[in-house]
Design brief:
- Pfam families: BrxC.
- This is Bacillithiol system protein YtxJ.
- This protein is an alpha/beta fold.
- The chain has a single domain, classed as 3-Layer(aba) Sandwich (Glutaredoxin), CATH 3.40.30.
- Helices cover 38% and strands 25% of the residues.
- The chain has four helices and five strands.
- It has helices at 9-18, 32-45, 61-71, 99-105; strands at 4-6, 21-27, 52-56, 79-84, 87-93.
- A five-stranded mixed beta sheet has the order 1-3-2-4-5, sandwiched between helices.
- The longest helix has 14 residues, at 32-45.
- It is globular.
- The model has no long low-confidence stretch (mean pLDDT 96).
């Protein structure tokens, strides 16, 4: 399944309403660490049934800030978030976001 890139708050709000569980990656288009994390996220996406989405912080800064404020999670980039029942149940950033860490985070859903 391909990873859809979110561009605005309307797309994000619809996602929250329509999905009980999903992952979101805040990805920087200019950061080498973010490129590494994006690769890890893509590998994880190929193995999981949980929908995975991404936003590009340079192109969707208002959305990125809104998520940080709305969920009380300091913005970092790259940053992966796991949503469950309209709440963030796991998040991590930078080099800590690996394929293995993403796999382990699914335990937060049970």
């Amino acid at each position: 399944m391909s990873i859809q890139v979110l561009k605005n708050e309307e797309e994000f709000n619809q996602l929250v309403q329509e999905n009980k569980d999903f992952y979101l990656l805040k990805h920087s288009l200019t950061c080498p660490v973010s490129t590494f994390v994006k690769t890890q996220f893509e590998k994880f996406n190929n193995k999981t049934e949980i929908p995975c989405y991404m936003l590009h912080v340079q192109e969707a800064r208002p959305l990125s800030n809104k998520i940080a404020e709305g969920y009380g999670i300091r913005h970092e980039s790259p940053q992966a978030l796991l949503f469950h029942g309209k709440e963030v149940v796991w998040h991590d950033s930078h080099g800590a976001v690996t394929e293995e860490a993403l796999e382990e985070s699914t335990q937060k859903l049970s």
